[in-house]
Amino acid sequence: MKDWKQIIEKPSQENLSRVGSKNWQNFLDQGSRIGISLIEQMKVYLRGSLKDKKILDFGCGIGRAFLPLTFDAGLSIVGCDIDATAVSYLKKVVPNNNLVVNKFSPPLTFEDNFFDAVYSISIWTHLNIHMQFLWLEEIRRILKPGGIALISVAGHNSLRLRHQRGMAMWQDINAKNLVNNGAIYKEYLSLNTHPEKFPGVKASYGSCLHDPEYIRQKWSNYFNVLEIKEAYIDGSQDLVVMNLSFTSDK
Ligand SMILES: C[S@@+](CC[C@H](N)C(=O)[O-])C[C@H]1O[C@@H](n2cnc3c(N)ncnc32)[C@H](O)[C@@H]1O
Q1: 156, 178 contact by CB (below 8 A)
Q2: 127 pLDDT exceeds 90?
Q3: Residue 250 has pLDDT above 70, yes or no
Q4: Could you tell me if the CB of 148 is within 6 A of ligand 1?
Q5: How does DSSP classify residue 221?
Q6: What span, in angstroms and rounded, lies between the C-alpha atoms of 167 and 68?
Q7: Does ligand 1 lie within 6 Å of residue 24's CB atom?
Q8: Is 115 exposed, middle or buried (0-12, 13-18, 19+ CB in 10 A)?
Q9: Is the pLDDT of residue 48 over 70?
């Protein structure tokens, strides 16, 4: 049988660049590495077969992780994103009813205590600080007791990479600033001049860096922060691994 990567329709270049992939091959390679890392963590923290689990890709985009988890690992993932163009691409190539366009602000339409796992790659790296907490609260609402949340953040490794790449936006920030501030959010300047680049975005949107100690302190109000795995997402972003206790009083 032919590999799904050779037969599915490719997304537009616009959609690819919105998720930061240079081209289709780069997108597929990143996706398969990210997919392997997510499966590794879900296997560590969830008991039993992943095939029986309810899993949400929050901010699925055009499916960098969603596609390999669906086609390679055979999981039935639910995906949501504010970008209707991305969701409609995914609906075309993965014909199931598990994909929805969600609103920019909570709530989602899912019931309380619904998912065993929610993963979210490269979303908290764009939300402003206020929205980050609103969405943590919402993810907590839809997770079952004992469920896990896997959320990527841009930490010290991402800051180093941004300096190496000469990204002007981050040249004035060093590691010490990040430690002292805990989280540093900068709004995209192009949000007002080129809103078409950000489908579904209704308010503030930008780029955020997080220090692990800040996450341990602040995000512990929502979840048990189990681990922060540095550069675990494709050698770049950190992965925050969290769960909800069975005894959680939500
Ligand atoms: C950098 S892309 C990452 C997409 C995908 N997770 C991946 O790794 O390829 C960021 C995604 O977050 C989505 N997004 C931003 N804010 C969101 C929100 N409030 N709810 C759901 N998705 C959101 C954007 O539309 C975009 O698809």
Answers
A1: yes
A2: yes
A3: no
A4: no
A5: G
A6: 30
A7: no
A8: buried
A9: yes
Rounded to 5 degrees, φ, ψ at 210 are -130, 140
148's enclosing H/E stretch is strand 143-153
Rounded to the nearest angstrom, the distance between the alpha carbon of 43 and the centre of ligand 1 is 24
From the CB of 138, is ligand 1 less than 6 Å away? Answer: no
User: How many other C-beta atoms are found inside a 10 Å radius of the C-beta of residue 231?
Assistant: 16
- Ligand 1 within 6 A of 19 CB? yes
Rg (CA), the chain: 17
Q: State the Cα–Cα distance between residues 170 and 186, nearest whole angstrom.
A: 9
Of the candidates 195, 199, 212, the residue with the CA atom closest to the CA atom of residue 62: 199
Q: How far is it, in rounded angstroms, from Cα 93 to Cα 9?
A: 7
The number of distinct structural domains making up the chain is 1
Q: Are 32 and 43 in contact (CB under 8 A)?
A: no
Q: Is the pTM of this model over 0.90?
A: yes
The token duo for 126 is 């764009």
Which residue's CA is minimally distant from atom 13 of ligand 1?
Answer: 59
Residue 12 lies in a domain: no
Q: Is there a contact between 101 and 81 (Cβ–Cβ < 8 Å)?
A: yes
Instruction: Please count the residues of the chain.
Output: 250
CATH number at residue 160: 3.40.50.150
Q: By residue range, what is the domain housing residue 213?
A: 28-243
Query: Would residue 51 count as lying in a domain?
Result: yes
Q: How much of the chain exceeds pLDDT 70, in percent?
A: 98
> DSSP assignment, residue 10?
P
Considering only 4-8, 66-70, 156-160, which range has the smallest mean pLDDT? 4-8
Q: Does residue 18 fall inside a structural domain?
A: no
DSSP state letter for 170: G
Residue 179 near residue 211 (C-beta atoms within 8 A):
yes
> Does some domain include residue 234?
yes
**What pLDDT sits at residue 1?**
56
